[in-house]
Design goal:
five-stranded antiparallel β-sheet; 38% strand; six-stranded antiparallel β-sheet; alpha+beta; 248 residues
């Protein structure tokens, strides 16, 4: 699934790549624990919120991914979704994608890719049919007096033209199927992993991944600060990460 996320992200984004890392920093009585070797920040108030980076370093073209877990330890239910998460980098707001936005994006990209593939395939099919169906011959004839003339003759083979067209059409259908298959894998990944809006009853838990727009490394400073605020039923849990460019 990690490969699906990376492939999908690189498909949707482009630009020059720089490797960056985001280091979690425990503040305000938070704990830093480790799960499977990865640092996790834990903030405990009325509810407990845990946050971690699923990868400590990433390509700057990729959307950073945070894994967030919430446990409602209060006596009242509350509803939680990506609208309850805000992210800032160097005091500038960073967009957090909702599940619905990500699904819409994949569907729009898929429709666009299908259309461009179909148009390209139609041009290829027409060109292949023309080349396969049309045959041109030339030769020379000579008279008894020593004169000569060149003649040109063309013929059209409808069967060969249709066969060439069918071959290209079949290739286009395979390409369109690949586009749809890649989209289906991306949607399945989002469905299984991205955080969706849920109501947490007392004692309930919720875990999911959150994506933001790409966070670029600092241009001049050695590091910049990313602040993630999680509003869990009115309680604000604020987390800090330091963004650094990886020196090669």
């Amino acid at each position: 699934m990690q490969l699906t996320y990376v492939a999908l992200s690189l498909l949707l984004l482009s630009g020059c790549a720089t490797s960056v890392q985001m280091k979690p920093v425990a503040v305000d009585g938070q704990q830093e624990i480790f799960v499977d070797g990865a640092p996790v920040l834990v903030s405990t108030k009325g509810s407990t919120v845990k946050i971690k980076r699923t990868s400590q370093s990433h390509d700057s073209r990729l959307r950073p991914k945070f894994s967030i877990s919430i446990a409602n330890n209060t006596s009242s239910p509350f509803t939680f979704g990506t609208e309850n998460i805000s992210v800032q980098c160097a005091n500038k707001p960073i967009k957090v994608y909702s599940y619905d936005e990500l699904v819409t994006e994949v569907n729009e990209k898929t429709r666009s890719a299908e259309l461009s593939t179909a148009i390209s395939g139609a041009f290829r099919a027409n060109a292949a049919a023309t080349n396969a169906g049309n045959t041109r011959h030339n030769g020379s004839v000579y008279s008894n007096s020593g004169g000569s003339a060149t003649y040109y003759e063309s013929s059209y083979n409808a069967g060969a033209a249709q066969q060439a067209r069918n071959s290209e059409d079949a290739k286009t259908q395979v390409e369109i199927a690949d586009v749809r298959n890649n989209a289906a894998q991306g949607l399945a990944y989002y469905s299984a992993n991205i955080l969706k809006k849920n109501t947490l009853n007392p004692g309930g838990t919720l875990t999911g991944d959150v994506l933001t727009v790409p966070i670029l490394p600092p241009e001049k400073e050695t590091e910049s600060e990313v602040d993630v605020t999680v509003n869990a039923g009115g309680e604000l849990h604020q987390f800090k990460f330091l963004v650094q460019k990886i020196q090669k």
